[in-house]
Amino acid sequence: MTKRLIIPTNGIDVQYNFNHKFFVKWTNELEFLSYNLKNKEGEERVRENAFLSTVTLGYEFYDKFAVIAGVGYEFEKSKDLRIIRLGMEYSFSIGVNWELSPELLYDIKEGSHTAITWGLAIGYRI
User: Fold this and answer.
1) Tens-digit pLDDT profile for residues 12-29
2) Which one of 9, 45, 63, 80 has the lowest number of neighbouring Cβ atoms within 10 Å?
3) Are 81 and 112 in contact (CB under 8 A)?
4) Nearest of 92, 47, 53 to residue 74 by alpha carbon
5) Residue 60 to residues 21, 27, 126, Cα–Cα distance (Å)
6) DSSP code for 112
7) What's residue 2's pLDDT?
8) Which of 46, 36, 54, 29 has its CA nearest to residue 108?
9) Is it the case that residue 45 has pLDDT exceeding 80?
């Protein structure tokens, strides 16, 4: 059964910019939510404080506004899930080389559920 959830997370990103348009990002985050899911047969299982690790490619197509897409895994004691991640982000300059980037992500968790995640990253461009 597909179910949509809004899940708060905290994590860390490592980003490498190939040029001023393309980048790759490795994200690791921890969910701050426990929730129950029901499958098609009505069986329930609890997802508790899952850890997500994803790799995404990004394209900055308009003055610090970027779209991202990638894959990863969600690790949790009851069952690990593969993830397809789609999203967008916008970077604000907050000083020399420092940025603040709000992001909105949509995760498709294989055979389980989907999740919408919003984030706020602080970054330093080299």
Assistant:
1) 888 888 998 999 999 999
2) 63
3) yes
4) 53
5) 5, 18, 17
6) T
7) 53
8) 54
9) no
